[in-house]
């Protein structure tokens, strides 16, 4: 994360950085003052939710429904094979060129875009997710905290957030730890070797059960180790927070050798996600040149479809809509089938001022890809661009019947009601978006604004009143739980 989050963690945990303008406790739940409080699953979830509020405000947060939906599909495919623990996971991407991934309390797993691009196969990316999932299902962070004997719950919170900070800036976090409390704290910023081996073992099992190539794990880690040896002073952050030993690699190799070889083909979605991220790197002109060169020289390992898609994205980013349209034509010629291509085609129509054309494309794509959230979001936005807010409201209402826990769709609904001048419904929809993101005080504020809006019928006002009582009770319950030992 950026220094905003990191400095807060260091102040709270090690007391060596001047206090930031915000309170060090802001954004973190008050979990009580008992010296012997256990790091329970409920506590893990509350800490995870609190840190996620910070992450979503960070500029590195990648608000891309296609990338994040892909990560969640792969992650949920893996986690569904776990026997140890049933819980919800949320996978998300951070725009960061470094090779890193991290698991947080409560099942939140982040992946840097640099790591996605460094994975040469889908099985390699899946191996990292499987490893992080295993850290969560085995409750490694909780076990580390409970074993550490830290006296104050605030120390547990500080260490949890410091571990998160170490994912992005391992040197800074570890250096602060050594300056503050010595090697004892530093050692707890890294998972123990036993935990790493356990995550390897269980991660391999998840990979195999999910139909991936288990050799992806050893292959990726071996490349990381080689990179770390070549650039010792600039080793990947993943190696510094997940120490990779010769014994670990040997143990992985022994387990893999006993399993039959399985060739696994990368999905088109994996290739398209990587191409999209690659097109967003560096300058737009450099991105165009890279894809053009690879296509001309046929120097690419994946499909031509992914290369054409990447070039189309780079062209659009460079402002050359006509050239992007030509690449879309090439994708159609290749008979490529993917929801990501349909959303890109709709994006082109909007850039060309053809909102009606974008609506037509996305309406045709919806029944073909009914679970694609990017298509649903894009359709609402295209309808708003076409000045059809009433139709947009209908789309949000129908969508929320199937996906009632989607904060982004609630937010789009709030935007649409705002354009229609329906203030009560606008604030109520925004309140639901905040509530789903764990921002209960903000949800209460929106519901209070809905009460004062002066519009809406008796039934709608009664719903707002009832929901406000629920949210206030939730706030009170959370405050009460936080004070319990």
UniProtKB/TrEMBL annotation:
Keyword Zinc belongs to the record: yes
InterPro entries, alphabetized: Mito/Outer_Membr_Metalloprot, Peptidase_M48, Protease_BepA, TPR-like_helical_dom_sf
HAMAP family, per the entry: Protease_BepA
Name this protein carries in UniProt: Putative Zn-dependent protease
Domain of life: Bacteria
Residues in Peptidase M48 domain copies: 67-252
Gene3D superfamilies: Metalloproteases ('zincins'), catalytic domain, Tetratricopeptide repeat domain
A GO term, aspect molecular function: metal ion binding
Cofactor(s) needed for function: Zn(2+)
GO biological process, one term: proteolysis involved in protein catabolic process
UniProt signal peptide: 1-24
Any one annotated GO CC term: membrane
Database matches in Pfam families: Peptidase_M48 (PF01435), TPR_19 (PF14559)
PANTHER family referenced in this protein's UniProt entry, alphabetically: METALLOENDOPEPTIDASE OMA1, METALLOENDOPEPTIDASE OMA1, MITOCHONDRIAL
Keywords assigned by UniProt, alphabetized: Hydrolase, Metal-binding, Metalloprotease, Periplasm, Protease, Signal, Zinc
């Amino acid at each position: 994360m950026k220094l905003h989050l990191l400095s807060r963690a260091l102040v709270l945990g090690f007391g060596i950085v001047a206090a930031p303008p915000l309170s060090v406790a802001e954004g973190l739940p008050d979990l009580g003052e008992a010296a012997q409080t256990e790091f329970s699953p409920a506590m893990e979830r509350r800490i995870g939710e609190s840190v996620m509020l910070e992450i979503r405000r960070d500029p590195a947060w990648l608000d891309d429904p296609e990338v994040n939906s892909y990560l969640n599909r792969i992650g949920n495919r893996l986690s569904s094979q776990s026997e140890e623990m049933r819980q919800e996971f949320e996978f998300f991407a951070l725009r960061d060129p470094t090779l890193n991934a991290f698991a947080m309390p409560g099942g939140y797993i982040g992946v840097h875009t640099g790591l996605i691009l460094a994975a040469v196969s889908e099985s390699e990316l899946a191996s990292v997710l499987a490893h992080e999932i295993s850290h969560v299902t085995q409750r490694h962070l909780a076990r580390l905290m409970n074993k550490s004997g830290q006296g104050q719950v605030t120390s547990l919170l500080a260490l949890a957030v410091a571990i998160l900070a170490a994912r992005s800036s391992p040197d800074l976090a570890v250096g602060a730890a050594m300056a503050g409390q010595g090697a004892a704290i530093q050692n707890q910023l890294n998972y123990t070797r036993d935990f790493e081996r356990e995550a390897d073992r269980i991660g391999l099992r998840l990979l195999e059960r999910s139909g991936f190539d288990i050799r992806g794990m050893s292959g990726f880690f071996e490349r990381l180790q080689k990179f770390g040896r070549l650039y010792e002073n600039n080793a990947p952050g993943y190696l510094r927070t997940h120490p990779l030993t010769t014994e670990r690699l040997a143990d992985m190799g022994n387990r893999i050798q006993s399993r039959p070889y399985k060739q696994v083909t990368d999905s088109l979605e994996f290739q398209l996600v990587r191409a999209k991220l690659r097109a967003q790197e560096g300058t737009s002109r450099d991105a165009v040149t890279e894809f053009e060169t690879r296509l001309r020289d046929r120097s690419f390992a994946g499909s031509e479809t992914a290369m054409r898609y990447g070039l189309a994205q780079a062209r659009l980013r460079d402002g050359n809509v006509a050239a992007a349209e030509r690449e879309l034509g090439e994708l159609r010629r290749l008979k490529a089938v993917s929801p990501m291509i349909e959303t890109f085609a709709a994006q082109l129509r909007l850039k060309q001022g053809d909102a009606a054309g974008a609506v037509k494309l996305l309406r045709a794509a919806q029944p073909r890809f009914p679970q694609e959230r990017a298509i649903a979001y894009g359709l609402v936005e295209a309808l708003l661009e076409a000045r059809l807010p009433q139709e947009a409201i209908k789309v949000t209402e129908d969508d929320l019947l199937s996906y009632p826990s989607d904060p982004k769709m609630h937010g789009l609904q709030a935007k649409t009601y705002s354009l229609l001048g329906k203030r009560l419904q606008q604030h109520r929809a925004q309140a639901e978006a905040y509530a789903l993101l764990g921002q209960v005080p903000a949800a209460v504020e929106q519901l209070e604004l809905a009460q004062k809006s002066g519009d809406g019928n008796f039934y709608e006002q009664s719903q707002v009143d009832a929901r406000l009582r629920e949210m206030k009770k939730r706030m009170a319950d959370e405050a009460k739980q936080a004070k319990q030992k």
